[in-house]
Every structure is written in structure tokens, then in C-alpha cells.
Amino acid sequence: MSALAPVLEALTILIAEDSAADRLLLSTIIRRQGHQVLTASNGVEAVEIFAHERPQLVLMDALMPVMDGFEAARQIKQLAGEALVPVIFLTSLRESEALAQCLDAGGDDFLPKPYNPLILAAKINAMDRLRRLQATVLQQRDLIARHHEHLLHEQRAAKAVFDKVAHSGCINAAPNIRYLQSPYALFNGDLLLAAYTPSGDMHVLLGDFTGHGLPAAIGAMPLAEVFYGMTAKGYGLTQTLREMNAKLKRILPVDMFCCATLLCLSAQRRAVEVWNGGMPEGYVHEVATGRRTPLISRHLPLGVLSAEAFDDSTEVWPMALGDRVFLLSDGVLDTADANDQLFGAARLQQVFAANREPDRLFEDIEQALAAFRGQARDDVSMVEITLLSAPPLRVAEPMYADSGQSSPLDWSVSFEFRAQTLKNYNPLPYLLQLLLEVHGLREQGGALYSVMAELYSNALEHGVLGLDSALKRDAQGFAQYYRQRNERLAHLNSGYVRVHVQVSPTDQGGTMTLRVEDSGSGFDIEKELARPVDADRLSGRGLSLVRQLSSAVGWSDGGRSVCVEFCWEALA
Amino acid sequence: MADIHLDPDVLSGLQDVMEGEYPKLLDTFLDDSQKRIEALRKARDDAKALGRIAHSFKGSSGNLGAVRLAQLCQRLETESVKPSSDLGELVDQIDHEFALVRPLYESERQRFSF
């Protein structure tokens, strides 16, 4: 016995053999080799013992009464499940057909009679190695499965947190937004945000982070916070873009950045303002003419450039009510077919051209993608926003729950914003924050912001910059107007906009007077006010809005000074 | 082929392997074989049963070094699946061969009786 290979680990081995002498011989040999032995004299016994004792290896006689070794092997393999329980057939069978039958029944090896103890020990050891290998593989597979489950769980948790942040906006509530995003697009780096500004404009961001998984999602959190925070406070696209860029530049590693398109849709101004940094071209779809204006990427993605080098210039396109803006992620264009051909912009244009029902555009695109590739990708994001007439200005939620005693009711303040400031600073969010300290004005926050925004941009554009609103009568002039605006602002080195605020208490509550003056040449007030209100005109809408929203409005100093009044009643 | 009834090398190998269990193995074999001989006699006209018993008997007699007995069992197993072969003649030969080796195993067993 000394010649036998050393036993690695004592196994429990089941011997199923109907001949008592053979059973005794085999049991003794195996016991001497250091293993535990269980014995059965037919197939039924073997299966029963296996079920109860779970031996690690089985030596099985092929021909036995009651149930033969083939059937017993089959049942034992089934009971063993994924674990490898080697079955070695004990046989003096010679015919190859019978040997093949042993293998078909799940046998792993043969041991011919008469028994040779050396070969028996070697076979048991070899089978034990296989058995351990299989156990290791199963263990590692289960470990991987657990890690995978853990990862999915983390993603679900991260997504739940993120959804709270991302969906604090109006993406799901707004009636004019349709979007399509795969549920885990977030983990492919796609990000879609939408929120109303205080004046009822809508800001929309479609972003695409480099990278995948949690790193991409983590970058999305601060971006969403900046987007919602600044939109709610009334910051425009340029300030919001600057802040987002600076924040991402600060927190993201060098090889990570965020391609993004940011929109400001204004039903009141009948226009969309666009900044596109690295995203595929979106489109403004003029429903009346069917024309699609591409929203071309003019910038590097967010998080790449330093604050000094960052370009926040935007483009403005006119929109009529019912016109649509369509944005998409590169997952749409980069969908590849079996031959690595990309779907591409040309095929997308074909889908646009073939589209007969604007409301079915997404479905048409999805169908085209599916037909092209054979299956859908999970990182496709699309969004379409229709310009609807402005929603009623929302009543701002009171931010404090105090009795109103701390509300300042008798004060005034004056500002003068000069050329260098006018170039790149938007004072409106700051002014709004200041005015909302007056509790009585909070309920009118939206109207207040809209009026301030209108008066400020009139003072800046028509007053200081001397732009002619008549230019905005058609789409071409509209673009020209905004080009001129950017040019003149860039070269501005004199001029001012002054803002005077006067808050006074009254018996019933209080009044706030807001006067905006500019350094421009004024305008013919009588003539301007006499013009009829034309709903489809791209210009001149501002004044009627101001008159509609404030308690009183008056011009003086040849149109260079405008004064509006807001009143409120004492809070209950 | 020379007619070896009992291979002494197999017996000494078994004695090495079984050590103290060796006499018990001999007892078990004799007892088991006696039952199989009786079963063979009873099943004289049932070719299928004869084949099955012969297969099993072949295994244990081969393990115990009863070379000729194992050969006869092998022949019976082979013949049992052929139509119209005279199996009774083979059963008689097996019966006869076992009667011959039986005393040899018994005398081997005597060496360890205590």
C-alpha cells in the first residue's frame, strides 16, 4: 500500500455493487486509502444513500438487480445538481456500446475488473481534482454573481437618489415635453433636465458625460444641482453655463467632461436660446414651413476649458407656438449595424423627411434604429419640446414660515450698472432675491421677475445698445438682431442701466416702485403704445406684458425712464 | 490457453490488500458463489437470467483469481444472447469448475482459522 499516491483529503465514497465479495474487496481497498465508505447492493439503495449522505464520489456497478447502475447514475447526477459528483463505473463490460451507455448515463470514468488498487487510487485522486475544480468554478461564479448583484443594487440606490434630484424639475410634469430615455441611461452618462425660470421660460439640458457607470452618474449630480438652483433663481443660460463649466472643471478628472446642449425656450419672447457644446445637432422644427434649423455644436463640452477660456455665447432662433425643438444623444447617430456602419445624421434626416405625424417622430426614429441594427441600444436619449403659450406664472412657495414681522417694508435702494458690468453680468437674480425679502412680493415673484427681465433687457438692448426691435419682424432679422446684440455688447465701453427700488408700507399692505433708466436716446412713447398688439409679431410684445402684469406703468424722460408699481395687501 | 483454476499471485495480492479481512473475503466469496451456482441451476431455461448471473459471477471470480471459472462465466454471458445455443452444457461446466476450486479456497481459508 505504500506505493499509493497520498490522499489529499479523506472523501466519502459510495460503492454500489451487487456482489458481496467485490463490495467487501473494494470497501477494504478504499478504506485503506483513507476514505470513508458507504455501500449499496443495488441502484435503488445507491440513490437513497446518496440523497441522505451526499458522498463526494460514487463507484457504480453497471449491472445490478432492482435498478441498474445507468439509471442510478442518472438519478444521482440529477440530485447532485451543479456540483460535480464523479461516478466511476465498475465494469467488466467489454462492448463499446455498453461503455458508451455508461458515459451517456453521466459516468465520468471506468474501472475494469479485476480491480487494481493502484489504478483505483489514481482514478479517485484524478476525479477528486476535477471535483475540486468544479467546486472552485461554482464558488467563483457565485462570487461574481453576488458582486454583480451588489453593483446593480448600488446602481438602483444611486438612481433612486439621482431621480429625486433630477426629477425635482418639470421633466415629467410639463405638458410640452416628450422624451425617451432608457431607464439606465444615467449609467451610460446621459442626463436630461428641465425646469421653469421664475418668468415661466423653460430651461432644458441634455447632457452626455464621457465614461460609463457610477463615475458618469456622479458628475451628473452637481450639474443637476447647479441647473435647478440657478434656473429657479432666474439666472440666464450664460451664467448657468459658466457655473456648470467651472464646477465640472473643478471636480472632474481630466479625461472626463460633459457634452451638453442647453436651451431656454421662451413662449413670451417666441424664441429659443441655444448653447451646444459637443452634442449632435438638434433641430428647431418650424411646423408651418416644415423647415428644420440645425442647432450646431459651437463649443467644447462642459468641464474642459478654464473659466477664462470658456465661451458662453448663445444663439437665438425664433419659434412660433407649436414649433418644436428636438435634441438627441449620440447613441442615436452612433447606433451601428452588423457591419459596423453607423446610423448617422443622413439617415436621421431621412426619418425626419418621411415623418408625416410629428407626434410619432420618436416611434419613427426608434423603428428606423431597430430596422437598422436589429435591436435597440440602451443609451439612446431623445427629447422634444413644443413651444406652448406660457403657463400661468407660478405662485412662489413661501420660503419662510415666520409671521412676516421680519419683512422689510420701508426702504429704497439704487444701482447703476455700467458698461463693463453690462457686458457679462446679469443683475436680475440678485435683484429678485433682494425683493423677495419683502414677503408681500413673494406671491408675485414670477410676475415681478418677468417685468424686471423685460424692463432690463429693453433698457440694455434698445437703450444702451440702440438695437431696433423692428428688426425682429422676420426670422432673418431675428438672427441679425441677436448677432448685433452680441457685437455691440462686446465693444461696449460707455453707457449705464440704473435701477431704483422704493418699498413703502400702506394701510392695506405695501407698494414697491421699480424705476429703470438707461443712457440711450429714448423712443417715441406715444407711437409705441399706439401700435396694435399683434400676437404673431416677433417684436414689441414686451410692453403689453409689462402693462398686463404690473399695477401701474409709466414712461418719462423721452422713453429713457420707465416706472412700474407692484402693490400687495397685508398677509393674513 | 492453459487451464489455470486458481491464480496464486492474485491470492497473495488480495492478502496484502485485505490484511485481517482476507479470511472474511474468502468466506464471502464462497458464500456468494454458492448462491450464484444455485441461481444458475434454477435459471437453466432462462437465457436472460443466466446472462445476468454469469456477468456478476464473472466479476467476483475474476477478482478472486478463479481464472477458469471467470472464463466460463464470460462464455455463458456471451452465449446467452445468441439464439439456440446450448447453455445447459455451460452451466454444468461452471458447476463442475466451482466444485473443483471450492476445496482450494477452503484450504486457503484453513490457514487463517483461529
UniProtKB/TrEMBL annotation, chain A:
InterPro entries: CheY-like_superfamily (IPR011006), HATPase_C_sf (IPR036890), HATPase_dom (IPR003594), PPM-type-like_dom_sf (IPR036457), PPM-type_phosphatase-like_dom (IPR001932), Sig_transdc_resp-reg_receiver (IPR001789). Residues 12-128 form the Response regulatory domain. Keywords: Phosphoprotein. Transmembrane segments: none annotated. Pfam families: HATPase_c_2 (PF13581), Response_reg (PF00072), SpoIIE (PF07228). One of its GO terms (molecular function) is phosphorelay sensor kinase activity. The modification 4-aspartylphosphate is found at residue 61. This is Chemotaxis protein CheY.
From TrEMBL, chain B:
PROSITE patterns: HPT. The modification Phosphohistidine is found at residue 55. SUPFAM superfamilies: Histidine-containing phosphotransfer domain, HPT domain (SSF47226). One of its GO terms (biological process) is phosphorelay signal transduction system. It holds the Pfam family Hpt. Keywords: Kinase, Phosphoprotein, Transferase, Two-component regulatory system. Residues 15-108 form the HPt domain. GO terms for molecular function: protein kinase activity. Gene3D superfamilies: HPT domain. This is Histidine kinase. It comes from Pseudomonas libanensis.
